[in-house]
Amino acid sequence: MKPTTSHQAKPKARIPTSFSVHIADELRLYDAHLRDVRGLATSTRKGRLHVVGLLLQEKFKGRAIEIGKLHPDDIRQFLAAQQNGKQSASYSSHLAATLRSYLRYRATCGDQVGKLTAVILNPVHWKLASLPRALNPEQVERLLSSISTARRWPKRGYAIVRCALDMGLRAGEIAHLMISDIDWRAGIVTLRGTKSLRQDVLPLPMETGQALADYLQHERPSTNHPAIFVRKMAGQEQPITSAAIQKLIKRACRRIGLPHSSAHALRHTVACRLVENGSSLKEVADLLRHRSLNTALIYAKLDTPKLAAVALPWPGSKS
After folding, report:
1. Angle at 268 between CA 262 and CA 272, to 5 degrees
2. pLDDT tens readout for residues 109-146
3. Among 108, 142, 159, 235, which residue's beta carbon has the most beta carbons within 10 A?
4. No. of H helices and E strands in the chain?
5. Residue 233, SS3 per DSSP
C-alpha cells in the first residue's frame, strides 16, 4: 500500500432542518472543523452533528449560542436523557466521544470548557472483549452465490461485495470509487474517499477486477458519469451512496440467514483470513488502512497457535 496526500474535499454533512438558524450555523462550523482538521468521513460527521445539535437545542433553542452559559449539570442531564432506553456501551461511548470532540473544538475557539469536560465519564467498555464478527469460508461462498443470482443488479451487487471481501473497503470508499481510480494495466486501485486526509493505493485482486469489469461492461447504465457505481434517481444519474451499499450487503446477508449482516463484517472477514494465513498485525492494519496499530489488536486473539505458545500454565495444573 502506498499512501499519498489527498486534496480532494469531502462533501459537507447535511444539517437537519429541525434545528434553528443559530444551531445550524454552529453545526456548519463544527462540520468544517471535523472535515478539514480531523479528516472525518461524512457519515461519522453526520452522527456527531446530530448529537451536538440535540445538546444545543436543549439549551439554546431559538437564541444565540453562548457556550459560557452551559453548565456541568446541563451535560449530565443531557447524557442521562440520551442514554435512557439505549444502554449499550457502544452508544454511551459514542455520546461521550462526540461531546468531548465538540468541547475540544470550542476550546480552540477560546471557550473555557474544563468543567464541562470533567463530567463526561468514560463508560465501562472492554474494547477487545469480543471476537471480530466475521464470516467463515462457507458463509462467504453462500453470500457470493446468493448475490450473483439476485433478480436486480446482480453484477453490481457481486462487484460491491467483492470490493469489501477482497480489499476490505468501507462502504463509503466503495461509493466514492471512480473509473479513473483503477489502473487496469498495473492492477492497482487509488482510494481517495478515505477516512483520513490522504489517498491510498491498493493492489487490485484478479477476482475483484473481473467482477468490476463484468459490471462495467454488461450492467452499468450507459452514462458519462465518472463514478463506477451509478444509479438513476428521479431521472438523474447519481453515484450510489454508502448507505445504499450498507443496505445492499445487509439485505443479502439476512436473505440467506447469516448471523452477521453488516458491511463492516466483510472487513473483519478479510482481516481474519489474513491472520489465519500468517499475516502480521502490521500487514492487517496496512490493508485496512487503520491509522493506529492498536485498532488491529482485536485480531491478535485469532492467532491461537501463537497465543498457545506463550500461554501461562493454569494455577494448580501440571506445567
Report:
1. 150
2. 999 999 999 999 876 555 544 545 778 889 889 999 99
3. 159
4. 13, 6
5. strand
Q: Alpha-carbon distance 246 to 171, whole Å?
A: 6
Q: 54: number of CA atoms within 13 Å, CB side?
A: 14
Q: CA distances (Å), 287 to each of 187, 283, 319, in order?
A: 16, 6, 39
Residue with cell 481474519: 272
Segments making up each domain of the chain, as ranges: 11-118, 137-305
CATH number of this structure's domain 137-305, picked from the four choices 3.40.640.10, 3.40.30.10, 1.10.443.10, 3.40.50.11810: 1.10.443.10
Structural contact between residues 22 and 61, judged by C-beta atoms closer than 8 angstroms: no
The C-alpha cell at 298 is: 482485536
CATH number for the segment(s) 11-118: 1.10.150
Angle between helix 242-255 and helix 137-148 axes, rounded to 10 deg: 110
Of 62, 10, 53, 61, the residue nearest 34 (C-alpha): 10
Q: pTM for this one?
A: 0.59
Residue where the block lists cell 469460508: 137
